Amino acid sequence: MAEPTLPECVDLLERLAAQQLDLNDQLLTLTRRLGEEHALYQERLAWHDEMLTRMQQTLDAIKDMLDRGNGRS
User: Fold this and answer.
1) I need a surface site. Which of 3, 14, 42, 64 has the fewest CB within 10 A?
2) What is the tens place of the pLDDT at every residue in 35-68?
3) CA torsion through residues 68, 65, 63, 57, sign
4) Residue 28 contacts residue 36 (beta carbons within 8 Å)
5) DSSP state of 73
6) pTM of the entire structure?
7) What is the rounded distance in angstroms from the CA atom of residue 71 to the CA atom of residue 15?
């Protein structure tokens, strides 16, 4: 198998460099999207935590009322 000529090597390097730039752009896009998805997940998690806290407080208040005999039987 013959070795590639200098112009062939330069052409190959240029194509590889272009591919690398394209891959870098794709990686940046993916990283940005993952960051956005993570932020959205964090917001939803915080909302769910807040709702669970409120539900627990409501449940505790109901239990307290029942313990004091203020609930209806």
Assistant:
1) 3
2) 999 999 999 999 999 999 999 999 999 999 999 8
3) negative
4) no
5) -
6) 0.59
7) 77
Mention every residue, 6+ apart, whose C-beta is less than 8 A from residue 71: 62, 65
Which residues lie closer than 8 Å to 3 by C-beta, 6 or more apart? Answer: none
Task: Round to whole Å and give the CA distance between 10 and 3.
Answer: 13
Q: Looking at this protein, which amino acid is placed at residue 49?
A: D
In the block, tokens 């806290």 appear at 53
Q: Are 61 and 71 in contact (CB under 8 A)?
A: no
Taking the alpha carbons at both ends of the chain, their separation in whole angstroms is 93
